[in-house]
Task: inverse folding
């Protein structure tokens, strides 16, 4: 990801980010609310490995966690329900964030003090978020994700385009 950031103009990264948000909005909106247990789901492990690799390359270059890319793929193509997608994203983030941090740090892009402060807040956020996720029904969860993505798109569009 550090290499991609070094050689890609900022405006391409910004517009790519907007495109991924728009794709995520469409994907979540079209998602059918079937709760399929991951234990009952048969997915080719190579597809998941490739999806993780591609997502990490793109997401870490954009400075996002990857959910905007991986959740639409998991829910639309592989037909996972949104809650399972969120759980898979948390696991994905452990490895992708650690690797991205190392790559971006090596290339001189990490403000360490700010990164530490954001990390402290994220620990509390994950605890509250997973508790809330477990207590929320699928329809409300879908509405929450859509609202979050739409707000993110509007704010990002305003900052990037206007």
Result:
């Amino acid at each position: 990801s550090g290499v991609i950031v070094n050689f890609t103009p900022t405006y391409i990264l910004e517009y790519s980010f907007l495109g991924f948000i728009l794709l995520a909005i469409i994907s979540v909106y079209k998602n059918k609310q079937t709760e399929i247990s991951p234990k009952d789901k048969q997915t080719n492990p190579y597809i998941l490995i490739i999806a993780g690799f591609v997502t990490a390359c793109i997401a870490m270059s954009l400075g996002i966690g990857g959910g905007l890319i991986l959740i639409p793929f998991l829910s639309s193509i592989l037909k996972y329900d949104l809650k399972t997608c969120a759980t898979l994203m948390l696991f994905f983030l452990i490895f992708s964030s650690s690797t991205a941090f190392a790559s971006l740090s090596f290339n001189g892009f990490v403000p360490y003090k700010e990164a530490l402060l954001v990390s402290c807040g994220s620990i509390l956020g994950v605890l509250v978020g997973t508790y809330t996720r477990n207590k929320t029904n699928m329809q409300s969860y879908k509405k929450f994700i859509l609202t979050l993505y739409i707000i993110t798109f509007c704010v990002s569009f305003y900052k990037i385009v206007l």
Q: What stands out?
A: Residues 82-106 form the longest helix (25 residues). The chain has seven helices and no strands. The radius of gyration is 16 Å. The mean pLDDT is 86.
